[in-house]
Inverse folding.
């Protein structure tokens, strides 16, 4: 899941869909932590950490692309 939606591109429907998706993801992670045995839950925690790291990298790349897009419209100052 990528949280790098720009506010100019996201309408109320997109925001609601994103909020619903995030809520379902959190619910499923909490349920998995409650239901799964400890050994499987540890693997789930590792996947969660890896997923969060991937999302952080993806969000950073999206912010950098957005900044480059914005700066492309302005003349360079030396």
């Amino acid at each position: 899941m990528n949280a790098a939606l720009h506010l100019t591109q996201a309408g109320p429907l997109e925001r609601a869909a994103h909020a619903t998706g995030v809520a379902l993801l959190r619910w499923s992670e909490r349920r998995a932590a409650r239901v799964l045995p400890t050994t499987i839950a540890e693997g789930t925690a590792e996947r969660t950490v890896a997923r969060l790291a991937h999302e952080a990298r993806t969000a950073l790349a999206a912010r950098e692309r957005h900044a480059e897009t914005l700066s492309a419209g302005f003349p360079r100052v030396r």
